Amino acid sequence: MTEQALGADARVVIIGAGHAGGSAVAFLRQFGFAGPIVLIGDEPTPPYQRPPLSKAWLKGEADAASLMLKPESFYVEQGIDLRLSSKAVAIDRAAKTVTLDSGTVAYDVLIIATGARARRLPLPGADLYGVLELRNAADAEKLKTAIGPGKRLAVVGGGYVGLEVAASARALGADAVVIERESRVLARVACPELSAFFQSYHGAKGVAFELDAGVEGFEGANGHITGVRLSGGRIVPCDAAVVGVGAVPNDELAAAAGLAIDNGIVVDGEARTSDPAIFAIGDVTRRPLPLYGRMHRLESVPNALEQAKQVASALTGRKQPAPEVPWFWSDQYDLKLQIAGIPFDADRIVVRGHVEAAKFAVFHLKGDRIVAVEAVNAPPEFMAGKLLIGQAKPIDIAKLSNDSVSMKEVAA
Questions:
Q1: Contact 372, 389 (CB under 8 A)
Q2: Which CATH number fits domain 334-411: 3.40.605.10, 1.10.10.10, 3.30.390.30, 3.60.40.10?
Q3: Burial code of 109-129, b = ≥16 C-beta within 10 A, e = fewer?
Q4: 230 Cβ neighbours under 8 A, 6+ residues apart
Q5: How far apart are CA 66 and CA 63, in angstroms?
Q6: Averaged pLDDT in 10-residue chunks for the chain of 412 residues
Q7: Which three-class secondary structure state does DSSP give residue 392?
Q8: Domain spanning 123-245: CATH 3.40.50.11810
Q9: 301-316 and 19-30 are packed helices; what angle lies between their axes, rounded to 10 degrees?
């Protein structure tokens, strides 16, 4: 199949023109693939960066051109058949075709990069104007018009995106309240120490919190949201609400085609699915994490880039890239949170630095090996921690705990 993909007439078709799909196109050309490539996207714009949508875009610090992965001229110059505002509706594996809402395209190799969508809350009032989500540029533009001085924003879900939106809302002069069903923010993605820090920091910036708070529905008048109704009936007044309660992989197309699915499309270390002619990359996949000896679904730009390299390497006969340590980031106010690794099976934490000065790191260890690090305004801890996770190297915990000992010495 790889030899066929390298043939002069072989066609690579990519469903999904997000960060993963757009990166796969660029790596294929960079790695020497000269055959035809069809890139199918259901949005009207070429591949663009999504992380700035909750930050720079909302605050007016970025425009559409600055978010593009590649200028539009790239696709013309590289001979990419870019089909925007086009939706894939079916995959015929026997015929090796993809049915679009505008016709059919044949493939020799298919790459599925359909990403994930915001999890919806099936609640009364969820269809009111002003009940928003944030997954793409159109969502961000709606939200941008809904926040400003004197406006009240409710954020349902206290995860990273929700906190980023709350920070942007405060920067634009809007009131913001975060509604979270758990007893702390970031409950599903961060340790209690980090949760407490971020809640305190946001609180000092004027963000209000409703914790241990279930949501029963959305109240409205004349078709527009006026408030969020909590369990018990209390109403949190608002002019707009952003629902950020996780994401669901867009794996229905793959499932209907009979590919292996398990909370995402199951792939191997080359991003290959259960069909050897079909690959999948990005948020939609459940992939091996060799460093942790398990399968997992990741939602991040670094993951999209790593898998784009994997598939491009597989199709051009290059050596596969070394497994990367998963990493993530979040920008809120003047805070830069950098996370490396995932705290699977961690049995202790070490806090290094000064929490009160907003310059610290939380290390998660399994025995004497670091498996994850959460670093706030602490690049040396993030970089050294990421290196040590990848090396699975035992460390001196006393040195790690002592911030007068450099991270270079800890890693030595």
A1: yes
A2: 3.30.390.30
A3: bbbbbbbbebeebebebeebe
A4: 179, 210, 213, 214, 215, 216, 236
A5: 6
A6: 57 97 98 96 95 87 90 96 97 98 96 96 96 92 90 96 94 96 94 95 98 97 98 96 96 98 97 98 97 95 98 95 94 95 96 96 97 97 97 95 94 88
A7: coil
A8: no
A9: 40
